[in-house]
Structure formats: C-alpha cells, structure tokens
Amino acid sequence: MSEHLNAAMVEQYADGELRADEVAAAEEHLRACAACASAVVAQLQLKRAVREAAWTLPPDALRRRITRRRVSPLAVAAVFLAFSLGLGIASLLRTSSGRELADLHATILASAHPVDVISTDRHTVKPWFEGRLPFSFAIPELGATPFRLAGGRVVYVREQPVAYLLVTKGAHKISLFAGRDVAAPRVDGFESVSWRAHGLHFVAIGDVSRDDLTALRNAFVTAR
Ligand SMILES: [Zn+2]
C-alpha cells in the first residue's frame, strides 16, 4: 500500500488544491485505507460546518467556534462508495464550492433575520456598509425599475467579506452578492447572472427570469 496522507495533504485534497497526479495517487491510497479516508471525511465535515456557519460569523470568531467533529462510519462508507464508483471527491468538491452562493441564498432567505440593515433607501444601506467592507460599491436608484431594495448584510465567502443585498421584485426575492472574488454558482434550481464592474464581482441569484436578473445587472452596472 502507498504511503498514508499527511495532514497537509488531507487538507489540500479536501480543498481541491492537489495537482492532478497527486489527486490520482491520493485516491488510489484512499480506496484502500480507512484511516486516511476517515481523515478526509472529517476534513469535509469541518468544511461543511464552516460553510454553514460562515455567513454569520467573521473568520476569527468562526475559527474559535469550530472544533473537529467525530466522523460517522456512514460518512466513511459514503466516501468509499464514491471512490468505488470512480467519482472521487474532487469532482464533488468542485460542485460544492460552486454551490456556495446558491446555498447562502437559500439559507439567508430561510432565516428569521435575513438582513442586518433593513431599508428600501440606498442612501441608508450604502453608508451602512462603510467600515464593514474593504471596498465600496454603488447601489442604483431602483425607483424607476420593478425592483426594490429590502436591505443588506455582510456575509463571508471563503473567509472574505462580501456585501449581500436583498432585492425584491413583487413577491420574488433576489440575492445580490458583491465582492472581490465571488464565483458564479453553477447550479440548477435558481436563475443566476454574474458580472464584473468597478473592480468587483457581482452575482445575482433568484427565482425570477434571466431577463429580470439581466435588468437588475444593468441597473448596477450603470450605478454611480
Ligand atoms: Zn492511509
């Protein structure tokens, strides 16, 4: 049997940061070694716990709160099954990081307090972000559009602060994320539009049509 994965390799593997040849070697070992597979599962569960808590807590508080969890035999079995089917975890991980914003969208909308600053007025919401984000961005006047601002908050994506705006169109809710490095989600179930403007990445996700999200994008791109 090949060598065990050390702690750094387990972490890099779970983060999808190993080179392709390293991934192949790691997965060959993981197929045969329950100890390393369970270390990988623990790391994945930690990542998931971090992700679920990440939108409410700044990174420092998060690090203090998260502790390593016990690994269930079922989770280990699931990993072995994934390997034996030839899936590998790397492909699952790429999907899960792409899901992050869509997960945040769903989680925030399900929350009792989706936003920290509740206002339809961009002149209230924009200043609220000052001092809370290492960048600034313009919020357009939406009065002439079918959209209304509902409020905002700061969320954390891969430990980076990201602006979150809740925008409504009638009864529909749209999440708008703005940050320095925000990846476009690749998921079914929600429509999403992403763009770059003013040195930032923007992603809009919601249960509205693509044309609606494009109209919202146009409002933000031309905002001063
Ligand atoms: Zn091993």
Give a quick rundown of the structure:
The protein is of the alpha+beta class.
Quickly list its features.
alpha+beta, 8 helices, 6 strands, 6-stranded antiparallel beta sheet, binds zinc ion, single chain
Describe the structure.
By secondary structure, the chain is of the alpha+beta class. It contains eight helices and six strands. It has helices at residues 7-14, 20-32, 34-54, 59-65, 73-84, 89-110, 122-129, 210-221; strands at residues 117-118, 148-157, 160-169, 172-179, 191-197, 200-206. A six-stranded antiparallel β-sheet has the order 1-2-3-4-6-5, sandwiched between helices. Strand 5 and strand 6 form a beta hairpin. Helix 1 (7-14) packs across helix 3 (34-54). The protein starts with 6 loop residues before the first helix and ends with a helix. The structure holds zinc ion. Zinc ion (ZN) binds at residues 4-5, 29, 33, 35-36.
Low-confidence stretches: 89-98
Please state the average pLDDT score: 79
Q: Please report which band the strand proportion falls in: under 5%, 5-15%, 15-25%, 25-35%, 35-45% or over 45%.
A: 15-25%
Please tell me how large the radius of gyration is. Answer: 20 Å
Tally of individual helices: 8
General form: elongated
> What letter string, H or E per element, gives the SSE order?
HHHHHHEHEEEEEH
Ligand list: zinc ion
Q: Span between N and C termini? A: 61 Å
Proportion in helices: 40-55%
